Amino acid sequence: LLIAYLIYLVENSSLLKPSFSWETKGELQTQTYEYDELIKPLLNNKYLVNLSEIKNKLEKHPWISSVEVERIFWNKIRVVLERHDIAMRYGTEGYISSKGILFKPNLTINSEKPIAIVPEKEVKQFYSDFIMYQSILEPVKISLFERTSIDELTLDNNIKIILGYQRQNDRLKLFVQSFDKLKKFEKIRTRGIFDMRYPNGFALSYSPL
Predict the structure, then answer these.
(1) Using one digit for the tens of pLDDT, what is the confidence trace for 152-196?
(2) Radius of gyration of the chain (CA)
(3) Which of 67, 74, 95, 154 is the most buried (most CB within 10 A)?
(4) What pTM was estimated for this model as a whole?
């Protein structure tokens, strides 16, 4: 009877129940209901908590970029999450993070980030090129970057730049130099379309009113 009573106490004790601490980039998280519910099906056996299964389950969450799971005591488990940020909007389907990772959370977020139009398989290189283009254009911001067979940019001042498929960085630097001289003309600085695919210059046209 004593053994049966001890087994009963152990089974019903909260001492063996796994206890989780959640962190996001070093910050302790207190609102963790979403994550708790996600891993709940994996905690049916309190004697055997598989940390790899927990990690794999959490990494499938659309907003989570990476997961670290470690046991810091026999029933104490520490989980460190890194969430995706939004660097670009991927059309209306998803987002691209600042690591160049495409994710689709099935949730629309109000965001003013630049719009990306590019095939999924090219996202990584596309985002790297976006960072380079933006560094050349600073402080002017890109609002739309479209990559088909050529690269085309729309800036937040409504200027459009056609870069083509080669020597894009050089062409963009030429645009910056040229636009600095031409921006005094209202028509150019508000409606200009710069086609930079010419060997020694560019063609200038205008967006319709």
Answers:
(1) 999 999 999 999 999 999 999 999 999 999 999 999 999 999 999
(2) 26
(3) 95
(4) 0.77
